[in-house]
Amino acid sequence: MTTRHIPFAHLHNVRDLGGYRTTDNRTLRWGRLYRADSLGKLTADAEADEAHRTDWARYLALDVRTVIDLRYDWEIDAKGRVPDHPGLTYHHLSIEHRPYDQPALGPDVDPGRYLADRYAEVAHDGVKELREALDVIAYAQAGAVAFHCASGKDRTGLLAALVLALLGVPEDVIIEDFTLTELATERLLADWRAAHPDHGPVWPGYGRAPAAVMRLFLDDLAERYGSLQAYAAELLAVDEKLVTALRDSLLEPLPA
After folding, report:
1. From 3.40.50.720, 3.90.550.10, 3.30.460.10, 3.90.190.10, which CATH number describes the 15-249 domain?
2. Is the model's pTM score more than 0.90?
């Protein structure tokens, strides 16, 4: 399993989406688009401990000028948002409208079917915010774009799949990218346990990203709309102009 994770002390699931190839043999630019777990874990406080200061310096070195925060208002109120800094544009676009409590699920709940159904809810509830997120990514003028939720898996994974599909990245690669969260699962679970020391047993699927989740989600959309791209065209009003803007922004230019 390939790792694209960028190492941080307090962030566990920051990944560069560069290097993926499209079906027409173009390549995503490195250092242009990142997916992440909550950037609210960062601090710009000069008096913070060394690990936090190192994380902040490493984040600034990525030259992220645009952040899309996919979380609920109450998550941001509780956990904070990415620190403001010169040149940053921050967009809060909560794409999920029906919260659910993953850690409290029973051990009999299958991650594949359960999470695929939740992703379908987001795909239909969050059409306005998903379209806005695509516009932000396509038309960002300078620096890199980062989008994130809490763990960088579910809401972030859905938006990543949507962007990659519109760029023309093959479906098996989209699924593989989703599963890379598995490399961060242990750290994500450790963080959750540290924040909830009195919680009882945790759902065995918490923090997991099995391929079956994304496979079932994509298959469900294909059965209903024909493909993820067709879903985007019908529900998000994604047209050729937007797809061209995404490709121009995120893909390496064609040889002269």
Report:
1. 3.90.190.10
2. yes
